[in-house]
Amino acid sequence: MNSRFARAVSNPILWVLLVVFAAPASAQISVSSANPNNAPQGVTNLIVKIGGNGFKRGASSKFFITGTTNPGGITVNSTAFVSSTEVDANITVAADATVSGFDIEVTAGDRTGKGTDLFAVIQGNNQKFTNLSVTTYISDTDANGVALMIQSDGQSGPKNGVVGEYDDGQQGVSSILTANSFHGMPPGDWQFGAQNSPTRSVRFTIGTNAVPFGAPGYTVTPNPPFTGTRSEPGHLEDICTEIPNGSGSFNDMLLMTAGQVENCFAYLRWDPVGSKPTTFYRFEMTGNSGINGANDPETTEVIVTCNSVGTDGFCNDWFIDPQPATDVNGNVIPGTGIARLNFFGNKGAMNLGDYYLTFHFHITRP
Fold first, then answer.
1. Rg of the chain (C-alpha set)
2. Among the listed residues 188, 160, 334, 183, the one whose alpha carbon sits nearest the alpha carbon of residue 252
């Protein structure tokens, strides 16, 4: 044997280095998603598909109230390995489980990864939901200072003194996440109303913003009730909890995570002063979903963005903006949606044409 090679082979330090550098590094575990990402209290044997990287056979999973090591009423019955990027957890959610956001931990061998606020427990169908008070801010101009087509009345709210602020229960204003959500979901649809306010209103601009003949979104010759800007007793709302989210559940503003975006329906209504309660005008933005008869295919929907999550694990700050429409050449019109204007009277709904709309609503939850 070559003497130089023999000395190298017999050198213990070299052998240690060879072992260290030849040994494969253990893969790190990351946890990034859960499908579905929520479940009501009282659910048993629910399969939650956990996404990530670095999973191995024999992996286990745990659910903890966000930021704690408290399981909060979620029991993991079993964890099945599917691939290095997916394990499926079979869980039971106790009837009295904590309504909160949850972290998910996956352990494989000596490695553990955690995903923060990936899952949520919502109130079970046997629970009585209550409305949640929120503050609504209606902007008058966009980021470039251009006037929007739906504006505030220019007054400040009593709580924070901000122009365009409307506080729930103040000045005759209602501003809530409604408990009358669909599919047994928790309060996840926004409703704002100034119809009963003696001092507050909303400004609507219509007439000059009608969709022209031949452009996407045109259905009939526009017949607006007025041209220009008027202050009216407004009622604005979005509907998210009717729309499937693709994960076996439905959209819900309250359950959104920071940075998450959802498409929702919107109804922007006003009741002319002195009119009957059954007589009103309403902009409808429902797209072509056909859900529960919501089918105005020429219109766009609205985009709801969750800006932050509160200490209770639920979203507490949202933006609501139009889903951008396209012009006759197929170009996107930034910040501008399309709505159908309907008049509701004794003869039912009458289509008064389609209109480009711009607006920006900011919703906050205490």
1. 27
2. 188
